[in-house]
Amino acid sequence: MVVVCGAGRKEPPGDRSEKRRMAFVSTGCPTFQQGGATAVLKRARGHRIATTRKLQGLPFGHYSGLTESGLAAGEVFSPNGTNREVIEVQVQLPLGIVLAEVSGGIYVAAVKPGGNVDLMSNGKVKVGDRIVGTSAAFGSATWPSLSLERVLMALKTRYKGEVTLKIERAGLAHDIYEPKVEGAADIAKSAIVLSDSTKSDLEVQVRNALRSFVELRSAGLSAIGTLTFLLQRSAELLKKYTKEKDRAISVNNLYGRLKRAGVPLDNKIYNLFMIAYINTKAPEKAISIFQEIGSPNTECYTSLVKAFRKLNRLDDVRATKSRMERNRVPLSVITYNTILSAYAQSGDVENVENLFREISARHLVPDAGSWNNRMNAHFKAHRGRARLEKVRDIYKSMRLENVAPNKFTFTILVSACVGCGELNLAENCLAEMVDGGVQPDTFIYNKVMEGYADHLKYESALTLLEKMHAGGDAPPNAYTYGQTIRACSAAGHEEIAHSLIDSMKSRGFKPSAHVYVNLLRAYAKRGNIVSSFRVVQEMQDAGFDPDVRTMSALMHACVESEDGALAVSVYSRMVQLRMKPDVVSYTTLIRAYGKRGDTEMALRAFNAMKKERIAPTVTTFNALIELAMRGGQTQLALEALREMNDTPGVTLNRRTYELLCNSNCFENCPRDYVWFLMDVLKALQESKMYGNGQLYCELLSACSLASDAVVAKTVLEHRRTGVFNISDKDQALARKAEERAAAISRSVAKLRSFV
Q1: Which helix (H) or strand (E) holds 50?
Q2: Is residue 113 within a helix (H) or strand (E), and if so which, with residue range?
Q3: Residue of 102, 43, 113 whose CA lies nearest to 76
Q4: How far apart are alpha carbons 494 and 476 in whole angstroms?
Q5: What torsion do the CA atoms of 361, 364, 370, 375 make, to the nearest 10 degrees?
Q6: What is the pLDDT of residue 329?
Q7: What is the per-residue burial (b if ≥16 Cβ within 10 Å, else e) of 98-113?
């Protein structure tokens, strides 16, 4: 099917442009209706017919892109007359080319890559070739192409047949993308981009439109239609690049080409370039582009703020806002939200609250983004219960203002709930989210999964994993499986965790090294040496070489299985592999020597640790105290306690008191046990620390066994003077210990009175 555009247009008197007509040959749709023809006709008429000139290059047609029906419109200019090679091409209809009549000649204005002409001529037909003859309407004769109407008649009558085209060959137009190309061979190479299958349709259209724009401008012809099309396609291409994080080079190349070609860019295109640079991790480029904008609008300033926010340049964010106010550029809600997010990232609650109030003062309405930034600022600035209360208060105010929460709102809420261990509230947020028509995504589910893993709720984790699989809208990812495995491992269900790794692999996810280490630690905690070494082998098979964490976990498995010698052997292997031991490695080594009763080697390991400037933790000191108490070396235990008290950042925990309150060392000497516990209390007082409920109860019990009413009375007096800090957990035990001590005191008093 053929549509003639511009044939019936009357030129105004005195117009210095000669009449041109263009024919568009369909590439696929044989039933193109009159309505479609009218649309193409109108589009062609929208282009101003400009003066035809002799060009140094060859003719090139700008066209808005061949659609599925193969129709296109454009501006074409004349070449200078040259002698050309004539070839004949036999091709099936539809042809897949754009023809144009200029100065009495019929020229190829565009060739659709993959069309019949392109395929059957083996790519010989190029833009700029002249059609000098076509098959006659009937028979096998060839008619000279004297007019466009004659060509169209032949094509119409032979629509379902084969057409012979006689073509005068032309060279290729110079490519603006390769300005230094010289010679026919190089020009041919540069032209390959027109049909390069690796380029997207948008990139090809932008490239061709830019080439046409340059040729038209250099010939002094109008390029308004070409420019409009070029900017439109460039905008679409930039939006495409914005979604692809690794396309900063492509964005940079496009910008350079447009600037070299002298394409006038408007604020919309400048802003799209800035957004593309920001999203492709090149905010500095966005800032430099802003400097080239003559009169930036609100959107451009907003993108500038985003760039400064990415670079964490808060001073520049403030300066940009002041500059907008000084230049009387209105701030939109989106602009305010962008500034708010910059302050919220740093937890600057004061500035966030001031800006939030300013939005309403400017007669703007805060949207969900405004409220979310306010919530996020408090989330960053607070911890624990205070964080949850602040976030929930803002959420309630948001709902009272009839602002619908979005996915980010619920993400902050759920994160605050999980951080406080309020898993029931987190689950209620998920239910409210669904009721409000907001579909939870994988990230939010993973936040809840983190809470389940932290609190050993492995059954809830497994249920949520199954729900995510069944729903389909938020499928689990590798991190989801990792947290579920952590929940099962920490809860002591390592076999379930191990089966989840197999399930994870079957679904195409590769377990990370951290997943294997979590499973290894679960086996190690139970002292399961065989399974621990099996996990290490699986790690190696998966491509993960053992590291310090892995070897430390293996040592821990050996220690828990009471095999200190094997733990020391694993440590030696770690040193052979030139791994640098960390605090966990040294602590486990001390415990291993403790299992063997080798105090000297344990102390050597402790001193080597300090020599390496590795700060011991409370677990390290507990390992020393355990070693000392097991060997009856109470003075060593007291020395370790005193050094622990003097070490910055180390605080006694319940395990420390549990190890110190070990009466097995004093089975036959209860009075010595009383005095040892009093020495422990004295060491705490020297460091201005309190005794806890465990020590208080153990002292009173020891006094009862030793029938030492004097020390018992002293301990009771210490409690009244605040020497002990007894938690609610130990209150009941403290009362029972006090009752036993009182009974012993009464018995001693009666015995003394009898004597």
Answers
A1: none
A2: none
A3: 102
A4: 20
A5: 40
A6: 95
A7: bbbbbeebbbbbbbbb
Report which DSSP code applies to 448: H
Phi, psi of 383 (to 5 degrees): -135, 155
Tokens 């070489």 map to which residue? Answer: 545
Q: What is the pLDDT of residue 375?
A: 96
Q: Say whether 162 sits in a helix, a strand or coil.
A: strand
Structure tokens, 191: 């032209």
CB-based burial of residue 401 (10 Å sphere; 0-12 exposed, 13-18 middle, 19+ buried)?
exposed
Cβ–Cβ under 8 Å, residues 124 and 89? yes
- Residues 741 and 266: their CA atoms lie apart, in Å, by 89
Q: Which DSSP state fits 356?
A: H
More confident of the two residues 142 and 196: 142
Question: Radius of gyration of the chain from Cα atoms?
Answer: 41
Q: Which pLDDT value is given to residue 119?
A: 77
Assigned token pair, 536:
């290490």
CB-CB contact of 559 with 592 (8 Å): yes
Q: Which range, of 69-78, 348-357, 645-654, averages the lowest pLDDT?
A: 69-78
The C-alpha angle 369, 375, 379, rounded to 5 degrees, equals 135
Give the pLDDT confidence score for residue 37 in this predicted structure.
34
Structure-token pair, residue 375:
């919530």
Q: Among 183, 214, 288, 265, which residue's Cα sits nearest to residue 62?
A: 214
Neighbour tally for 478: CB within 10 Å: 14
Q: Is residue 653 predicted with pLDDT exceeding 90? A: yes
Partners of residue 22 on adjacent β-strands: 5, 100
What's the rounded Cα separation, in Å, for the pair 680 and 645? 11
What per-residue confidence (pLDDT) applies to 45?
Answer: 38
What is the crossing angle of helices 248-260 and 283-290, to 10°? 20
Whether the per-residue pLDDT at 219 is higher than 80: the answer is no
476 vs 473, more confident: 476
Amino acid at 630: R
The torsion of the CA quartet 702, 708, 714, 716, rounded to 10 degrees, works out to 60
Q: Where does the pLDDT of residue 49 fall: very low under 50, low under 70, confident under 90, or very high at 90 and above?
A: very low
- Dihedral sign for Cα 530, 532, 533, 537, please: positive
Whole-number Å distance between alpha carbons of 126 and 124: 6
Q: Which two tokens stand for residue 581?
A: 């031991």
Task: List phi, psi (to 5°) of 649.
Answer: 80, 0
Cα 513–Cα 520–Cα 619 angle in degrees, nearest 5: 105
Percentage above 90 pLDDT, the chain: 54
Residue 648's SS3 state is coil
| CA contacts within 13 A on the Cβ side of 529 | 11
Chain segment 716-746, per-residue pLDDT in tens:
889 889 899 998 888 988 888 888 877 766 6
Amino acid at 146: L
CA 314 – CA 305 distance, rounded (Å)? 9
For residue 104, the model assigns a pLDDT of 64
- Tokens 């060491």 — which residue? 683
Structure token pair of residue 574? 């770690």
Q: Give the pLDDT confidence score for residue 137 in this predicted structure.
A: 59
Task: Give the pair of three-digit tokens for residue 640.
Answer: 């370790």
Q: Which of 7-21, 33-47, 532-546 has the highest mean pLDDT?
A: 532-546
Asked if residue 523 lies in contact with residue 557, where contact means CB atoms within 8 angstroms, the answer is yes
Residue 85 is encoded by which pair of tokens? 């090679």
DSSP 199-237: S-HHHHHHHHHHHHHHHHHHTT---HHHHHHHHHHHHHH
In terms of phi and psi (left: phi > 0; alpha: psi -120 to 50; beta: otherwise), the region of 278 is: alpha
Computed over every residue of the chain, the mean pLDDT equals 80
- Tokens coding 748: 């001693």
Nearest CA to 598 among 633, 555, 634?
633
Number of H helices, E strands in the chain: 34, 10
As a whole number of angstroms, the distance between CA 514 and CA 689 comes to: 38
